[in-house]
């Protein structure tokens, strides 16, 4: 075979092999990097832009699409251990002429984490109000949406700052009393009484704890991915490093999980 042809095949093979090997290595060793790329691409496809804003020395991270107009803006609050990008699956169904804002809750993702901050529901509602004032979202009443812990915060926010809100949507909000507590809520109450804050089921630190959390939080059974089981995976060194700062005693209760999401929609009386 001609040497030039052989070199061409070697170059072509190397060109194809390098990105494939890089993807496989990332998939096995650095899955969090692929997840970030995935969300970055999804945000771009949906027209969501990420911005940061500061209130004194406190930083908020949020994504948005559109500009305030004659229709109310929509502010979305995610649940415990989630982040602003969890709303992307909802955003894709919303009209593009709406002004949407998805914020990272206090202590989550790009928003400031500090063991000295107040992570109670009231404390978080106060922080969200600071964020709203920073971006001047309350120039006109806006629509507030919250799920799980974010639903609890949204409800308290609406009660504390009713002039900011034109309507409120709560999806499986935490904090609502229930006649029959689930296994998950019973476990949380036991932990609260024993003050064993290092055993909160929503903060897994081992693959086994991750599997137990999925059993509590999901009705669909699936295996824990190999990347999670790996010591260098999602629950490995990065997990420990990123979550070590936020271990004060939690004062919030996650949402009770039901087979069908209960959606409560309330409009403020005129």
Helices and strands, with pairings:
Blueprint: H1 3-29, H2 31-46, E1 49-55, E2 58-65, E3 74-77, H3 88-91, E4 100-103, H4 121-134, E5 142-147, H5 149-160, E6 165-171, H6 183-194, H7 207-217, H8 226-229, H9 237-243, E7 263-267
Parallel strand pairs: 3-4, 3-5, 5-6
Antiparallel strand pairs: 1-2, 2-4, 6-7
What does this structure look like?
It is built from nine helices and seven strands. Helix 3 links the parallel strand 3 and strand 4. Strands 1-2-4-3-5-6-7 form a seven-stranded mixed beta sheet. The longest helix is centred in the first third of the chain and has 27 residues. It is of the alpha/beta class. The chain starts with a helix and ends with a strand. Helix 1 crosses helix 2 and helix 4 packs across helix 5. It has one domain: Alpha/Beta hydrolase fold, catalytic domain (Rossmann fold, 3-Layer(aba) Sandwich), CATH 3.40.50.
Task: Summarize the model shown.
This protein is of the alpha/beta class and 270 residues long.
- From the structure provided, what is the oligomeric state, counting identical versus distinct chains? single chain
Poorly predicted ranges (pLDDT <50, ≥5 residues)? 231-270
* Main sheet attributes: strand count, strand direction, barrel closure: 7 strands, mixed
Q: How large is the radius of gyration?
A: 22 Å
What spatial order of strands do you see in the largest sheet? 1-2-4-3-5-6-7
The CATH class is identified as Alpha Beta
Given the structure, what is the number of helices? 9
Percent of residues in helical segments?
25-40%
Give the terminus-to-terminus CA distance: 84 Å
* CATH topology assignment: Rossmann fold
Number of structurally distinct domains: 1
- Beta-strand content bin: 15-25%
CATH architecture: 3-Layer(aba) Sandwich
Average pLDDT level: 80
User: What general outline do the C-alpha atoms trace?
Assistant: globular
Order of helices and strands: HHEEEHEHEHEHHHHE
